[in-house]
Amino acid sequence: MSEFPQLRLRRLRRTENLRRMVRETRLSADSFVYPLFIAHGHNLKQEITSMPGVYRFSPDSLGHEVEEIARLGIPAVLLFGLPAHKDEEGSEAYAPKGITQEAIRAIKKAVPELVVITDVCLCEYTSHGHCGVLMNGEVDNDRTLELLAKTALSHAEAGADMVAPSAMMDGQISAIRQRLDEGGLTQIPIMAYAAKHASAFYGPFRDAAGSTPQFGDRRGYQMDPANAREAIREVEQDIAEGADIIMVKPALAYLDIIAQVKSGFAYPVAAYNVSGEYSMVKAAALNGWLDERRAIMEVLTAIKRAGADIIITYHAKEAAGWLRTP
Ligand code: PBG
Description:
The structure is a single chain. By secondary structure, the chain is α/β, with parallel strands linked by helices. It has one domain: Aldolase class I (TIM Barrel, Alpha-Beta Barrel), CATH 3.20.20. Helices cover about 40% and strands about 20% of the residues. The protein contains 11 helices and 12 strands. The strands form 2 sheets. Strands 1, 2, 3, 4, 5, 8, 9, 10, 11 and 12 form a 10-stranded mixed beta sheet that branches. A hairpin with a 2-residue loop joins strand 6 and strand 7. The protein is globular. The model has no long low-confidence stretch (mean pLDDT about 95). It binds ligand PBG. The site of ligand PBG has 11 residues, from helix 6.
């Protein structure tokens, strides 16, 4: 056993090549999933004000974008649809010609091998902006399950490779698994937003997707940010119901939960580096307050180091580009 002055941890930090040899965590575009917002329209590529560098696309303008994503080595995209009409039951979410279904078909036509994952939730589609249907002013869990299952089935029928339910309804994974299996879609995996917290960091997303609740908030179904033990129970429940991949969301303020889920379960762990985490870095960088590239790579490395196998991030394209040309 050696001690200072024989022991000197700085010896292995002296040059870049030495540091490369002992680096414990390596980022790769293989882990990235790039979220895409899709809206109705023609030739639409509209920047989201609160998320510089992130755009809403129309299905007809997706081809070029997904070719670029694939060229950068990113294996998957996660789709969020913005419907033409919202109603109480979020009916465009499960319409055969709904916005997400059209986007899936457009992407599959342009780049068939790109993994298309869809967010399965009602909040973008309901007039009240909640993630399920209402009963006496509250989200009715069990009636919502039917609509989530219908939505997941219709995404898979349109060609989605994976579905990602994010509504935080109890029983949503088993309801979806059962409906997919009955529909002959036994090969479609479910990535469960298992430990999804009621977070202020979803602010820019709600602006991008027009999904802010018209009254109240989501604390009646999303998790309390204070709870980590309950996150483990959510993960256990989703695994018991048939989830294939477990997600923790958001990522940065929840690295402890990512680490616990990674060590406690032999399932692939996804972490969602959410909109507010992206916008914070972008805003500071635009002000010249931090080195953008270093900050982004540090954030993504930390999420990976905590245990994420899959990182859903709006930084995916820029980070993948930097990983190609160091
Ligand atoms: C839909 C959903 C949300 C996000 C992903 N799926 C918003 C919310 O729950 O309010 C947030 C993603 C982000 O902030 O980047 N329920």
